[in-house]
Specification:
This protein is 51% helix and 20% strand. By secondary structure, the protein is α+β, with helices and mostly antiparallel strands. It folds into two domains: 3-151, Beta-Lactamase (2-Layer Sandwich); 157-211, Arc Repressor Mutant, subunit A (Orthogonal Bundle). It has a five-stranded antiparallel sheet.
Amino acid sequence: MHADDRHSVADEMIQEWLESLRALDVRALAVLGPASADDLLGRSLWTAHPRSFRRAAETFAACDAYGAGWRAARSPALAWQNLPDESSGWRETLVDQGIRAIVRSDIAMPLGAGFECLAFVGSHLGRASAFEVGWALANAWPTLKDEVIASRFGVTPRMRDVLRLLAEGLTAEEAAQRLGVKERTVGYHLNVVMEKLNARNRAAAILRACILGIL
């Protein structure tokens, strides 16, 4: 599947999710993840929907709200805040987009890395409503994860199959037999993944794939 097709699938999934929460005035969703395979504790915007919200989401990703520091302090995985009408900095950018509340669900990964799913709401939230949105975020992630990660790195299901078997301790020959392909095909997929994840060897590729949620 082409990367643009992956983006389309992810966009469709997020749009359906937003429509299911229309009664709570959820207007946008963003996923923040590691800045790169070499900068696991930095963060950047992985996806935002609707796409017109991308600039505001990028502004939020660049701020110091939540992120790795919040995770390292063992703060709650679910958090939210209401934005005052008179805001400055990154909050002002969101308020200008009609956003009045943020709900964040954290998905921790190994070695301090993680993903943040954020819902942007057009009205102030009480505790019960915030938890309802947060619960919906947490439930959406398992389904959304594969499409978001695939569109980011271009890792195909076959590449993931190869990595998973190698991570289980199989040799390239054994993995090829299990998948019904030639050994050189396994080597090809491994080399492509290593290049995409900027990994020097098989062990590094497997480790980074685990940290980034590919495995």
